[in-house]
Amino acid sequence: MELDRACPQCGQRIPAGSVECPRCKRRSPLGSETILGLSLIALAALFILTGFAARSYHATYKSLGRESYARGESDLNAGRAQAAIVDFRTALLYTRDSDLYQLSLARALGAAGRTDEARAYLTSLWERDPANAVVNLELGRLAARVGNTGEALRYYHNAMYDDWGSRDPAEARRTVRLELYHFLMKQGDRSQAQAELVAMAALLPPDPELYTRLGHLFLDVGDYARAANEFEGALRLGDGEEALAGAGEAEFSQGNYRQARLYLERAVHAKTGDSRLSGMLQLANLVLSADPFDPRLKLEERNRRVIRAFNQALSRLSACGLPVADISQPSPPPPADLKLAPLYEHAQKLRPQVQPEVLRKNPDLVTEIMDLVFQIEQTAEHECRPPEPLDRALVLLASQRGNSWK
Amino acid sequence: MTEPLRTPETAVATEQAAAPPAAADAGSGTQEGWPRRLFDRARLIKLSEGQLFIFLSVLIGLFAGLLVVCFQIAIAWTRLRLFGSGLAPPHVRVILVPALAGLVVAALVMKVFPRVRGSGVNQTKSAVYISDGYVPFSTVVGKFITCALAIGSGQSLGPEDPSLQIGAGIASALGRRLKLSRDKLRLIAPVGAAAGLAAAFNAPISSVLFVIEEVIGKWSAGVLGAIVLAALSSTVVMRNFLGAEPLFRVTTYRLEHPWELVAYAILGVAGGYASVFFVKLVAAVRPRLMHLPRRTQYVQPAVAGLLVGVIGLGFPQVMGAGYEVIDQAMHNQYTWQVLALLAVFKIIATSISFTSGTPGGMFAPALFIGAMLGGAVGGVEHHFFPTLTGSVGAYALVGMGTLFAGFLRVPMTSVFMVLELSGNYSIIVPVMISNTIAYVISRKYQKRALFDLLSRQSGIDLPSMEEQREESALLVESAMRPYGTPVLRAEDTVSEALGRVKSSPEQYVLVDQGSRGWSGVSREMLEWQAQQGRADMPLLNLPDRLRLPFLHPDQPLEVALRQIGDHPLLPVVSRTDLHLEGVVTLEDVLRAYRAATAQE
Questions:
Q1: A257-305: per-residue pLDDT in tens?
Q2: Nearest-Cα residue of chain A relative to residue B247
Q3: Residue B241 with chain A: CB contacts under 8 Å
Q4: A324 pLDDT exceeds 70?
Q5: Disulfide engineering: B230 pairs with which of B74, B195, B250, B499, CB 3.0-4.6 Å?
Q6: B102, B305 in Cβ contact below 8 A?
Q7: Residues 6+ apart with CB under 8 A from A25
Q8: Which residue has the higher pLDDT, B17 or B524?
Q9: Can you list the alpha helix ranges (DSSP code H) found in B298-391?
Q10: Edge-to-edge strands of the sheet including B508-512?
């Protein structure tokens, strides 16, 4: 059986079986349709009001975020990483989902040495947009900072081929590759560094300055042939003294002394005060003037060069503490512990034959003498005091001929 | 069953019949303007109460969504005005602002809005179970103002439960104005509650589940559609104004090895004990403060604010709802030591704020504590087992669900909430393991769930949804007994029937009518028919034969109670071939109920 009950609104008794409170019913004479209509009007009004409030809220937050971000950027540029972290965090408080702010915060954290936190931010950015070049680059930098070569390579490579937005992608990729190259060189991974340079060379625009720069990098990594190519490319495109010097150095390093001399002469002429280039040119001249194997040489000149080289080797031995006595006198035995001892003995044996007449009669002796000279010069390079210019020229010739016994 | 107020057909017919000639002309557009015609046409559209309820649920969702958006903005504005825009507010403000705001909040609660105390969940349940869905509109206004001030001033409380109550209040007000029936009014408050919670959480599925799990307590088809519609409407509105981004930016998760589940089980244990500690702390402090002299209630929120401010000097992260801190914790920005301290201080700060009577919710603090605890446990585990692949963010995410399961004791909501927030299905296994362990531990050491405990402390005996969920339903099979008499066939004659039931103890016998079901006839009736010379009459033709409804053994016992009426017994038949498995009488049903009560 249903009982009377109290109206929860006004406390009036509601008779059994009645749904509504009689007093409250009297108070609201409006029909359901009217109430519904009024509700819709109220909803529209609330919609407009909320729209204004939300717009104002977003605008305020955006502006606070921007202000904090700007402060953070200036702090970061001034090297105040800790202050920048606070600023970027504040910016993110107001614009939580800004990738730019998060990226900046990650940079600041990285700059402050808080790599784990930085990585956490960057990883979350990466998860949202794995093809974001900047995020990949930052992750690569972070990996490079902690010396993780594998991860650095992965992220740097991702960065190179990802979307760079409004930035010139070719230029951005070059910059990233260059950064990766420096990291790899620092890590001592020359072959990977060289591979990066080769990849860079394939996509180089016709800019002589870039060719020259890349040529120098190839020189650093020891790829002289490619370095020479780049410098020659730069020369073709019109670059001047830097490319000449680079090309000279590249050719010199490859053992192309004649070609090197051509470039170096022009380079020295253009850069008169450069002692390094002058030294290199001098050495190239010396190598060319000391080489007895030049097929254009006359016999007398060849023999003269052989004798000169042999005498230089003997004086090198003497400088290394081995007594080179008069040819008519018997020589004392060399100290047994010296690496040069067997060569010394060999030289002593050959010495009587190093005469223009003997060489003229026995041309095969030239090779034997020069092999010995090269061995003496190369061994002495590591054993004795610094060589004279002709010694260095002979060492270079030895390397060129592939007579390496080291 | 909802009776239509007026069917569309009758309404149209009535309107047409009653319409004066002028109004009829208006349809042609010659006499009156279009607003009048539109109004007249609109009046012709009459909705049944069921249809109106569905329409209203959308309207409620929109209202609730808009109000919750305003509520969130109000909290943000309050925080900005009171603490300034810096990341770390000045210490003087950290100490004074919550205390002074606490004084204002206390005055408003004591003098103007006495019904806004508490989180809002129990108040909404009270509306459903006690006051026919009545939530005064002043509660909506009061909750909005006091909670915005309290949360914005740094009290360690959240905006979700107040949003739930704001939604319920809006729904109740609209339902009353539209003169819904009492049944519908009772249902309308949960509809609004789901809408409010969905907008605050930006998680409609979890909100619907929470309302069903904690407020209504059962899956009711009649209200489920309305709740879902309202939750979706409010979520759409909220996302339109505040953006579609989830509350937290969740890191990706992948379970590499099943052994890692052990790590999440450990998190479940930690979460379970933390939940118990949290509930017991609230349960111990709240009644003590409630029983202090009434005048102290004017200063309790202020003192709570002062204490929270003191904690905030060292750990400003615990002040307010703390969503941004959860987000930071999920992105590995704190060490595990800091995370553990934050979890502890948040428990203390929230207990202080909540038990002081400051209006505000417990959802955000529960999520905060869970995230910090999860992050801390994950950090420790990573320290000792660096090969674990789950990130600290993943542990924080699972931790949120864990504390939700242990503290609020809503296991289903807790699982779906994590899924909805993370959008990652692969995290479900760790979440379920961790949540289940936390839930079991919480139940073992804390008999009553938080909301039940709070309502009892307030002197209200609201139904416990947890207990309701666990009530075992009695089935027909528990009352059924074997039928020890041969079943008669419809084609049997009266004399044959009497012969077959001669030795039976039953006074009322069943007749199998094949495809026409079952009927029953009393032995007395059979004997009387025989005496009247109808011994050869087939039972099929007996005029006093009573058609019987039948039951199945797996049906709830209350179905038997409803169907038995004045029948002496009912047949219980198998679902497969409808063969007789037993019978039940009213006495059998009552005996089963008595036995069940005695067992309890």
A1: 888 888 888 888 887 677 888 888 888 888 888 888 888 878 888 888 8
A2: A96
A3: 50-51, 54
A4: no
A5: B195
A6: yes
A7: B179
A8: B524
A9: 300-314, 323-330, 336-355, 363-384
A10: B488-489, B508-512, B518-522, B546-548
Query: Would you state the torsion angle of the CA atoms of residues A272, A277, A282, A287, taken in this order, to the nearest 10 degrees?
Result: -150
Our CA-based measurement puts residue B138 at a distance from the nearest CA of chain A, in whole angstroms, of 11
User: B76, A57: Cβ pair inside 8 Å?
Assistant: yes
Q: In 3-state terms, what secondary structure has residue B158?
A: strand
Which residue, among B330, B351, B187, has the nearest Cα to B253 in the 3D structure?
Answer: B330
Q: Name the residue of chain B whose CA is nearest to A114's CA.
A: B333
The contacts found for A202-208 with CB under 8 angstroms, 24 or more apart, are A203/A170, A203/A173, A203/A174, A204/A174, A205/A170, A206/A237, A207/A237, A208/A233, A208/A234, A208/A235, A208/A237, A208/A238, A208/A239, A208/A243
Taking a C-beta distance cutoff of 8 angstroms, is the pair B106, B300 a contact? Answer: yes
Mutate: best of A4, A20, A25, A46, partner B, most B CBs <10 A: A46
Q: For B59, which of A30, A43, A124 is closest by C-beta distance?
A: A43
Q: Strand ranges (DSSP E) for B188-345?
A: none
Show residues of chain A in contact with B166, CB under 8 Å. Answer: none
Pairwise CB contact (< 8 Å): A50 & B66 = yes
Cβ neighbours, 10 Å, residue B152: 24
Measure the CA dihedral B352/B354/B360/B366, to 10°. 80
Residue of A nearest to B182 (CA): A19
A173: left (phi over 0), alpha (psi -120 to 50) or beta: alpha
Interface contact flag, B177 A47, Cβ < 8 Å: no
Q: What is the per-residue pLDDT across B48-99, written as a single tens digit (0 to 9) for each?
A: 777 778 889 999 999 999 999 999 999 999 999 999 888 888 899 999 999 9
Each residue's pLDDT tens digit, B29-53: 445 577 667 666 665 566 677 777 8
Question: Hey, what long-range contacts does A302-305 have (CB within 8 A, 24 or more apart)?
Answer: A302/A366, A303/A356, A303/A359, A303/A360, A303/A366, A304/A356
Interchain CB distance below 8 Å, A39 and B59: yes
Q: Which residue in B has a C-alpha nearest to residue A60's C-alpha?
A: B77
Structure tokens at B184: 């519908």
Q: Which residues in chain B are closer than 8 Å to A30, comparing Cβ atoms?
A: 177
Distances from the Cα of B31 to the Cαs of B28, B39, B43, in angstroms?
8, 15, 19
Nearest-CA neighbor of B333 among B413, B248, B231? B248
pLDDT score of A340: 75
Q: B551 forms bridges with which residues in the sheet?
A: B572
Report CB contact under 8 Å: B85, A90: yes
The DSSP symbol for B202 reads T
Which among B295, B290, B294, B384 has a CA at the least distance from the CA of B336? B384
**ipTM > 0.90 for the complex:** no
pLDDT in the model for residue A292: 84
Backbone angles phi, psi at B547, to 5 degrees: -75, 135
Question: Which amino acid makes up residue B300?
Answer: Q
Q: Best mutation site among B327, B333, B383 for testing chain A: the one with the most A CBs within 10 Å?
A: B333
Q: What is the pLDDT of residues A213-224, one digit of tens each?
A: 999 999 998 899
The 10 Å CB-count burial string (b at 16+, else e) for B513-537 is beeeebbbbebebbeebbeeebeeb
The 3-state DSSP class for residue A108 equals helix
Are B110 and B186 within 8 A, CB to CB? no
**How distant, in Å, are the alpha carbons of A307, A324, A342, B227 from that of A329?**
20, 10, 19, 118
Upper half-sphere CA count for residue B487 (Cβ side, 13 Å)? 20
Question: Averaging pLDDT over each range in A145-149, A179-183, B183-187, which range is the top one?
Answer: A179-183
Q: Other C-beta atoms within 10 Å of A119: how many?
A: 21
Q: Is A173 helix (H, G, I), strand (E, B) or coil?
A: helix
State chain A's maximal CA–CA distance in angstroms.
148
- Taking contacts as CB-CB distances below 8 angstroms, the residues of chain B near A94 are 85
